[in-house]
Amino acid sequence: MTRRAPWGLLVLAALFFVPAAGSRYYTFLANDVVIWALFATSLNLLVGYAGLVSFGHAAYFGIGAYTTGLLMKKLGVSFLLAFPAAGLVAGLFALVFGFFCVRLTKIYFAMLTLAFAQIVWAICFKWNEVTGGEQGMPEIPYPDFGWLERLAAVVPFLGGYRTSEYYYFLTLLLVGVCFWLLRRIVGSPFGRILTTIRENPERAEFIGVNVRRYELAAFVLAGAFAGLAGGLFGIFNRGVFPDFAYWTKSSEVLIMTLLGGMGAFFGPALGALVLLWLNQQIVSYTQYWPLILGIILIALLFVFPGGLAGAVALIGRHLFRKKRAHA
User: 140-155: b or e for each residue (b if 16 or more CB lie within 10 Å)?
Assistant: First the structure.
C-alpha cells in the first residue's frame, strides 16, 4: 500500500519562500489567498460536509475582524489574546444564530442565515461609537515583531524582511494550524456523522443521531474558524470595515467553495486561489471584469461540476490507470 504524499505540508513549505523568491505583490497576493482559503474551508464544513448552505457566513468573518480590531487598536490587547478571541466571539454569535437557523431546512435555513448576517452588517454600519460606522476602523496595528527582529540579528535567514512579510509568515503558521484542526475534525467520527446527515438526515435521525445538535455544532465550528480568518484579514487589510460582514462577502466565499469543489477538503482553498488570481488578472486588462469573470466562472462550473478539486482528482486517476496499463 503506497502512502499519499503530504501535499498540504509541501504547499505550506513552498509558500514560506514566496517573500524570498517573489516581489511584494506576490507576497501580498499569497497572504490574501491564504486567509480566504481558511474562510472558504470553514464554509465547506457547513456546505460540503453538513449539507447546510449558508448565505450569511460573512457575519462571522466580520465579527472576528471587529473583535481583533477593537481589542488591538482601542484596548491595546496583544495579538496573542486578540486572535483567539476573534474565533471565540464569532463562535458565540454562531451559537446564538445557529440555535434558530438549524431549526429550519434548505432555502429557509439559507435565508435566515442571510437575515442574521444583515443584522450584523447593519450594527457594524451604524454603531459609530464602537465600530466606527461607515468609516470603519482604519490603521489596525500589526502584532509586535520586536522579538523576531532581535532574533534575526542572530539568525541570518530571518533578517531583511519587512513587517508585512513577518505578518505573512505568522499568517501561514496560524492558517496551517487551523487547516490541521479542520482536517482532524472532518476525519473524525463527528465529521463522518456530518456526512451521513448530508446524505440522508432522516436515516441519521432514525438510527439515533441528534441531527439538530450536530448541525449546530458544525455551525459553531464553521463560525469560529471564519472569525479567525476575519481576525487575520483585518490586520492584513490594515483596517476593518462594515462590508466585511456584507452579503457580497458571503457570495464570494460561497463561489470559492463551489468552484473548488464542495466536500473536497482542499477544494475551497483551490477555489480561493483561482478566483482571486482571475480577479487580479482580469481587472488589469478591462473595466468589464465582473462580466468576464462571471462568464469564466459559469464555464468552469459547467465543465467541472465537481469543482476544480474533482477535476484534478479525475485527471490524477486517469494518469494512474494509464501508468498501470503501460507497466
Answer: beebebeebeeebeee
Domain locations along the chain: 7-246
Retrieve residue 296's grid coordinates: 469564466
Percent of the chain with pLDDT over 70: 91
- Quote the CA–CA distance of 232 and 228 in Å, as a whole number: 6
Under 8 Å between Cβ of 67 and 89: yes
pTM above 0.85, yes or no: yes
Q: pLDDT, tens digit, for every residue of 34-69?
A: 999 999 999 999 999 999 999 999 999 999 999 999
Structure confidence at residue 154 (pLDDT): 60
